[in-house]
Design goal:
The complex is a heterodimer.
Chain A lengths: L5 H10 L1 H23 L2 H4 L32 E3 L3 E7 L2 E12 L7 E12 L2 E7 L5 E8 L3 E12 L3 H9 L13 H5 L11 E11 L5 E10 L15 H37 L1 H16 L2 H11 L4 H12 L1 H14 L3 H8 L4 H37 L10 H10 L2 H4 L2 H29 L6
Antiparallel strand pairs in A: 1-9, 2-3, 3-8, 4-7, 4-9, 5-6, 5-8
Chain B lengths: L1 H32 L1 H5 L4 H19 L8 H12 L18 H36 L4 H14 L3 H15 L18 H36 L2 H9 L3 H30 L2 H7 L4 H11 L2 H29 L7
Helix pairs in contact in B: 1-3, 1-13, 5-6, 5-8, 5-10, 5-13, 6-8, 7-8, 7-11, 8-10, 10-13, 11-12, 12-13
Classes of the chains: A alpha+beta, B mainly alpha.
Chain lengths: 455, 332
């Protein structure tokens, strides 16, 4: 080696197919992480463990696209927050009406529905909730007076489908249905055919009216959630978190961990090994014995001890991973520099009285650069999987949603036993894809650095 | 030794705190159980000072008044460890209920050896043959499949594949049990059968992930050796391909292969932590993890010691074997 120039490496690299594939995957990953980092500021990472942010999402919902492969469509979880708003004033009484249209085209009943609103009013307005079904039947759901207030105050409320008044109101209209409504929940009644208990497909309109005698009163925020069993591209987990968000946030984190650890430990190892090899004799002996000591430490147990006793912050963890990463590279770098230092130009530089540091940095290190790039690429996946493993054991940084963290949660909530494949598969596949990208690049570089392996 | 020192340094102070708190708790609970003691004091201060002296006395008898880094305590611990006397575990017990660290480790170690050593041996056998096969036919379909399988499998974490395997084979197709711990007591004659049955799923997983990279390594050695002059000479002499590979090429590839085998055998003992956690395999890895999470110092030290000793022994053995297989490194 050493006789290969950088142009040649570049040329050779882009000739190998897996090298290009690796670069392409890496490019996509970097692109995603840049978008994620730009679109969502770092602070929102911390929202991952804040249950309040995820409250309107469904529990363990299957990804939506699964419906494409099923003949019986699973109801999607829908969050409707843009109602059609109408104001109407007739005499003394003014009304605000919010309409939510929903196209219900599934073969199962929704889980529940929740209406969230906040209204600004004075007096005692009347809140009415109706639903117009695709078959034209209009069901009265709720008719209730809101708490009295003298001044213009803001009132927020959530109306749940489990509300007893809704159930009672529906029982009162049981003559519209040909079967017994007892023991059925309100969403099962609303979305059912009249002749038998099967989901009725079509367009439903949820009408929410607020009647009062004060035209300034209005509903400010209004949101209707139809609770389904499918949500988002990647589904949700037990804690209602959108897994797509977690997976996206995991990308920059994994790249950060992998790249920082790999680059730093390869640099450390290179400098250490080259220096030891170049100085030789006593220095070499001492430095290599120290290297052996670290080499003999069992890495994973020590990482666990360190993260339990010192800190499990992601940045400290990166440091720990570096501590164990440089050892093998230092060994190889040393043996390489032993070879290089016998070359004429190094000896010439030495005789000309150049400083040691300059010889190492100027004349020996550049020769090792191709090897360094290859080993950076190869050690990235190791760093990512080790971090994922630690997170999987529950020793990761809880404030960042890494892929290992998601898998850890999946394991604690028994995702495998419950068949929640969308919770287990994607994080692992992401880890593997990221690893693969670097392994591809590393292999392509390796084939150039060690031409013996080619053919 | 240095490994141990670092371990003690890392967990020592925490351990002392836990032990001290344990003593405080012990004293307090003794008093609450025995209200007569509390009633015999007239003021709260007097009571508090009594409790304090009690605590201090006990700490002194346990030797906790000196910090963990005092030469006396470290020296004493080291001396005991040299003779495999790890003392008693603070929290963990073996399945038979003993809290002697040596017994706990002796109970768990064979299980880890059983699972991971079997796996490593299977992996290496498959790996060597597949590697030799694909190394002799570079560019063939087998070679391509092996190489790409190696690359792909090396980037999957074993424990994730483990989760998938549990999902597939324990819940979707109920062939194997999800938890790897046998339910039958160890005295039962069917215990071995049950243990082996429970072992199948982890074993398959480990082998599946492991053999690809092995085959790839062996392949690369063989490819290197097949370009050597003496092999080409043999080829021109007309010795058949199979014989060349299995007698001459593999023999020359043996030294690095044996080094890797020795290292992966010993590494399998410690690297098993996560895999054992996934499959709930009651071996060393899980013991280690449990010990660290509850900060059970004697167990941590004992397990680290055993793992490091195994590691060093295998490096040593690998060196010896290296000299045996590769006469070039012999000196004098």
């Amino acid at each position: 080696m050493g006789s290969i120039t950088h142009q040649e490496i570049k040329g050779e690299f882009f000739k190998s197919k897996i090298g290009i594939a690796g670069i392409a995957i890496l490019g996509i990953l970097i692109f995603t992480s840049i978008i994620v980092v730009v679109v969502t500021p770092v602070d929102t990472f911390k929202e991952w463990n804040n249950p309040g942010k995820w409250i309107s999402y469904p529990k363990v919902a299957i990804p939506v696209w699964i419906n494409l492969f099923l003949s019986e469509k699973i109801p999607e979880h829908k969050i409707l927050d843009t109602p059609n708003v109408n104001y109407d004033v007739s005499g003394d009484i003014s009304s605000t009406s919010h309409q939510f249209g929903i196209n219900f085209d599934y073969d199962d009943f929704p889980n529940d529905f929740i209406y969230e609103f906040s209204a600004k009013y004075s007096g005692t307005p009347l809140l009415q909730m109706d639903v117009i079904r695709p078959d034209g039947i209009r069901l009265k759901l709720l008719s209730t007076s809101m708490p009295h207030s003298d001044s213009n105050s803001i009132h927020s409320e959530r109306v749940f489908s489990t509300d007893d008044t809704i159930r009672k109101n529906l029982y009162l209209q049981s003559n519209k249905f040909l079967f017994s409504l007892s023991n059925l929940s309100s969403e099962d009644i609303i979305f059912s055919k009249t002749e038998k208990h099967e989901p009725l497909k079509g367009n439903y309109i949820f009408l929410i009216n607020m009647y009062n005698n004060n035209s300034e009163n209005q509903i400010q925020e209004s949101r209707l959630i139809i609770g389904g069993k499918a949500f988002g591209i990647m589904g949700t987990d037990e804690l209602r978190r959108d897994l797509a968000v977690g997976l996206l946030w995991g990308t920059p984190l994994a790249l950060f961990i992998g790249l920082v650890v790999a680059i730093a430990s390869v640099l450390m190892g290179l400098l250490y090994g080259v220096y030891a090899g170049y100085r030789g004799k006593k220095t070499d002996e001492v430095m290599m014995r120290f290297n052996d000591v670290i080499y003999a430490l069992p890495a994973l147990p020590f990482l666990i001890i360190l993260s339990v006793t010192i800190s499990n912050s992601i940045f400290v963890m990166v440091g720990f991973l570096m501590l164990f990463g440089w050892v093998g590279i230092a060994k190889v770098a040393r043996s390489m520099s032993l070879q290089i230092k016998t070359r004429g130009y190094v000896e010439a530089a030495n005789m000309m009285g150049q400083k040691d540091s300059k010889i190492v940095l100027r004349h020996i290190l550049p020769q090792l650069l191709p090897y360094a790039f290859a080993s950076i690429a190869i050690s990235v996946p190791a760093a990512i999987t080790t971090e994922a493993g630690l997170s999987f054991l529950g020793l990761g940084d809880p404030s960042f949603p890494t892929w290992g963290q998601i898998l850890h949660d999946a394991n604690t909530y028994g995702a495998a036993a419950r068949g929640l494949w969308w919770w287990i598969m994607p994080p692992g596949i992401m880890i593997a894809i990221t690893g693969l990208a670097f392994v591809f690049i590393g292999n392509a570089l390796d084939a150039i650095v060690n031409p013996k392996l080619k053919r | 030794m240095i490994t141990l020192l670092i371990t003690i340094a890392l967990v020592g102070s925490n351990m002392d705190n836990i032990l001290k708190q344990g003593v405080v708790f012990q004293v307090r609970s003794e008093i609450t159980e025995n209200p007569a003691i509390a009633e015999s004091f007239s003021s709260v201060d007097e009571f508090e000072s009594f409790v304090q002296t009690q605590i201090e006395q006990r700490i002194k008898t346990l030797g906790l008044d000196e910090p963990w880094y005092s030469p006396q305590r470290i020296g004493f611990t080291m001396y005991k460890i040299l003779f495999l006397d790890f003392g008693h575990a603070t929290f963990l017990t073996s399945d038979s209920g003993s809290s002697d660290v040596k017994e706990i480790i002796l109970e768990k170690l064979p299980r880890t050896v059983l699972l991971f050593t079997t796996a490593t041996i299977i992996i290496s056998i498959i790996g060597i043959f597949l590697g030799a096969l694909s190394g002799s036919k570079v560019g063939s379909i087998i070679d391509r499949i092996t190489s790409s399988f190696a690359i792909i499998s090396s980037s999957f974490p074993v424990w994730w594949i483990g989760m998938l395997m549990i999902f597939l084979f324990s819940f979707v197709y109920q062939i194997f049990p999800a938890r790897a711990t046998p339910l039958i007591p160890s005295s039962d004659p069917n215990y071995i059968v049950s243990l082996l049955y429970h072992m199948t799923l982890p074993l398959i997983t480990i082998v599946m992930i492991g053999f690809g990279s092995w085959a790839y390594l062996v392949r690369n050695f063989i490819v290197g050796i097949m370009q050597e002059d003496f092999i080409i000479a043999k080829k021109t002499m007309g010795i058949n391909q199979k014989k060349i590979i299995y007698t001459h090429a593999l023999k020359n590839a043996a030294p690095p292969i044996i080094t890797i085998l020795a290292l992966s055998l010993s590494g399998s003992l410690g690297g098993a932590i996560i895999t054992e956690a996934v499959f709930d395999w009651p071996g060393m890895g899980r013991l280690y993890f449990e010990a660290i999470t509850v900060m059970d110092l004697p167990v941590i030290i004992g397990a680290t010691y055993i793992l490091t000793v195994f590691f060093l022994i295998s490096i040593f053995v690998a060196d010896l074997l290296y000299g045996y297989f590769d006469p070039r490194v012999r000196t004098g």
